[in-house]
Structure formats: C-alpha cells, structure tokens
Amino acid sequence: MNLLKTTTHSLSLLALSRLALSLLALSLFASANIAAAQSAQSTVIQDHDHSEHEEQSTALPVMNLDGVFSEIEGDHVLGSPTAPITMIIYASVTCPHCASWFNSVWPDIKNNYVKTNKVRVALREIPTPPVNIAVIGFQIANCAPEDQFFDMIEHQMKEQDNIFTSLKAGTGKATYLEIAKKAGLADEAAMNTCIQSEAGYNRLDKSSALMKAAGLKGVPNFIINGKVLKQSSDYLPLSKHLNKLLAQGYSPISKP
Asked: Residues 103-137: pLDDT tens digits?
C-alpha cells in the first residue's frame, strides 16, 4: 500500500463559520450538501508518492510553538506514559487515506507496540474536506469519555464509506445520532450542543496550528520521537523504524 496524503487547504479553522456549523447541526445532512462535499473532497487528494510529499512538507517553515514535536497537556493519548517511543498522529475522519491506514496498519501498531508499552500515541485532529462533516465527527469524539476517544475515531474510520453513503442518501442524521450515542450523548439535543462546543473548535484550531508549525501540509502524517516520519507508514517499514528506536532504550521526548 503506497499511502497517499490528503492535503488541507486551510490548516486553521479560525475562518470556519461557527454559525454555519450550528445551522448544519440543526438541519443536518441534506443529500445536496454531501454531494457537494464529496466533490470538494476529491479535489484535494494529490496523487504523489512519499518523497514528493516530504519535499512539499519540509519546504514549509517550521514555527516555534510548544508541543510541535512532543506530547502536550490536553493531547488525546493512548499507551504507557513511560513508553520509550512517542508517536504523534495527524489524521482526519473524512480522509480516505487516513481510514486506510487506521483500518490496515493501526490495529497491528496498537496491539504490538501500544498495548505492550513500547509506544505512546497522541492523536491530533485535522479536519479535511468535507470540513463541516469532519468537524462534526471530531466534535462528537471529543464529547466522549476520554478513555473512549480512540474507540470513536476507530469507529468512524472503519465506517467512513458507510457514513458517506448515508450522508449521500440523506440519512446521515440518523447515522450521526448512532455515533453520538456511542459517545454517551443521549439524544439529538445533546449531539447538537456537542457539535457547537467552542472548546472543541478551539481544540481543532490548536491541532491545525501545531501541524502547520511542524511544516506539514497533509494527512495522515506522523512525528515519532520528535522527528517527522519521512518514510512509508505501511506496517513493515514503520515497525522496522520503531524497532530501531526501541533498541535505543529510551525516549528523548519529555512528557507533560
């Protein structure tokens, strides 16, 4: 699998209309809206290999911002705080390449490295087109209990195709109500309140700012022990890279 990247036109959500999302939360998921969104989605996926992506990413200026290359307080994390490897994942629940990675590579990484206390993972949310739909998915995941956040992301990655099918069919509201219930939200009113959470918007803004500060412009992307991953994120090369770091026996990245 030669994993492509989904590029992000605007890595900051500051310009995203809170009012537009509020209205979307109240009158969710007309077929015309998702059809337009899917059309927009297809225009931001660039067919290039990893070397081309790396050249584009590293060409961006790296800004001085706390947490760019390390875990910070408030990150969604999974794994032991004493793990010798810290991996930051930037991903979007509406990115097909992210879903591919989460469905094919992540289960083995989680089982062989995270659950065995070798790797600690921080996931940072980067909405990609259709941005409003990605924001809704992330907002709902952020409203779940902290120990269920990764479960919510995994569910949306696994069900990504079915979610888009339901949105196109005009049944997305029911689909997201089911997702919201998995997150512990009792009803539509609770889901709408969650979707409009200003704290959630701020969180997404921060994730986008950190990604931009790292000089990255696409997802999925990975920072491992303070360095951007510049090779394939398929399981075999990624596990080889992790095993090489494990041989060092310590993490150079401090925990918050």
From this structure: 999 999 999 999 999 999 999 999 999 999 999 99
- Residues 27-76 have pLDDT tens digits of 454 443 454 444 433 323 332 233 333 323 333 445 567 889 999 999 99
Phi-psi region of 229 (alpha: psi -120 to 50; beta: other; left: phi over 0): beta
DSSP character string of 4-48: -EEE-S-S--TTS-HHHHHHHHHS---HHHHHHHHHHHHTSEE--
Domains contained in the chain, CATH given: 5-65+96-245 (3.40.30.10)
Query: Mutual orientation of helices 131-143 and 172-182 as an angle, nearest 10°?
Result: 30
In a 13 Å sphere around the CA of 189, the CA atoms on its Cβ side amount to 0
CA separation (Å) from 65 to 69, 204, 206, 208?
A: 9, 16, 10, 12
Residues sharing a CB contact under 8 Å with residue 178, sequence separation 6 or more, in sequence order: none
Spatial distance between the Cα atoms of 34 and 53, rounded to a whole number of angstroms? 28
Distance CA 28, CA 22 (A): 10
Gap between the Cα atoms of 245 and 256, Å rounded: 21
Residue with tokens 């888009």: 164
Q: Report how far residue 17's alpha carbon sits from residue 83's, in angstroms, rounded to the nearest whole number.
A: 39
Q: Which two tokens stand for residue 53?
A: 């992506």
Q: Side by side, which strands form the sheet with 119-125? A: 76-78, 119-125, 85-91, 221-224, 227-228
Q: Could you give phi then psi for residue 221, rounded to 5 degrees? A: -145, 155
Beta strands 5-7 and 218-219 are: antiparallel
